[in-house]
Specification:
Helices cover 74% and strands 0% of the residues. The protein has one domain. This is TPM domain-containing protein.
Length: 204
């Protein structure tokens, strides 16, 4: 019953047929066993063998299904961790992040949603979508880093090591790579204020 209720693509028709054959052989053995014990025994063995084959095949399909779903879930989790950092950066630092990064992040989110929606309906397709989402999320991280570097070069003379520019860039990239998302508020000028002047301290 568990195999018949599985979301896996089990050959239910063959399983039902083998089960019915086994029940019929058993009923015949009860009814006619005294008259034809050898014949009934032979039919029972044949029906039992056919049922075992179908059960083994169904269990194999179920096991493959579960393994694939597990792979889908792990891949979704991996992609999600990368994507969250990019999405938070897009929301919080829109003036820094370019169109290519946003478009790639959205494509990753769409692929991730497809994988999640189809993980039980079609786990093999869902796995392909989750893997594609992972690749897109990695690409979005790379593009976001380029956007931040470009902003840093334009406004602070470039480099990770120079003054507040390096610190701010390091914080943003750290959030991207960790997938935790979000940054502390910036006092003084800060990103939100449009400049980097003033004597205010950065809060974390």
């Amino acid at each position: 019953a568990q195999l018949l209720d599985s979301a896996a693509q089990v050959d239910r028709d063959s399983l039902h047929a083998a089960s019915g054959q086994a029940r019929a052989a058993l009923e015949k053995a009860h009814a006619e066993g005294d008259q034809d014990p050898l014949g009934c025994y032979s039919e029972l063995l044949q029906a039992d063998g056919a049922l075992d084959i179908q059960l083994d095949e169904a269990r194999g399909v179920e096991n493959d299904f579960r393994r694939t779903v597990d792979m889908v879930d792990r891949t979704i989790t991996d992609a999600e961790q990368r994507l969250v950092g990019v999405e938070d950066t897009v929301r919080n630092r829109r003036s820094i992040i370019g169109v290519d990064t946003r478009t790639t992040a959205q494509a990753a989110r769409d692929a991730l949603q497809y994988a999640h929606d189809n993980r039980l309906r079609d786990p093999k397709e869902a796995l392909l979508a989750a893997q594609h989402a992972n690749q897109l999320a990695n690409e979005a991280v790379r593009l976001a880093r380029k956007d931040i570097d470009r902003f840093n070069d334009r406004h602070m003379g470039g480099g990770y090591g120079g003054g507040n520019g390096g610190l701010v860039t390091g914080m943003v990239l750290g959030s991207l790579l960790s997938g935790n998302g979000g940054f502390g508020g910036f006092g003084g000028g800060g990103f939100g204020g449009g400049d980097f002047g003033g004597s205010g301290d950065m809060s974390f």
